[in-house]
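Please, structure for the following, as tokens.
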Amino acid sequence: MEILFLGLKLIGAGLATISLGGAGVGIGFVFAGFLGALSRNPKEENKLFSYTLLGFALTEAIALFGLMIVFLILFGF
């Protein structure tokens, strides 16, 4: 029974790791949007960059929540 629980734990942690890939794609979209907006309106660089950093931080927070779930699955149960 214990070996089954360990296997299910590892499968669950592996599935939860998929969220990190989604966060990477999200960060790519944030910076692609920044470059597109910057090329259309270069005078607003400071404002656009601050919005980009906010988007990056929020997207990275999602990745950290996913990583926290992985660690909870592996070491919490």
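The chain has one domain: 12-76. The longest helix spans residues 45-76.
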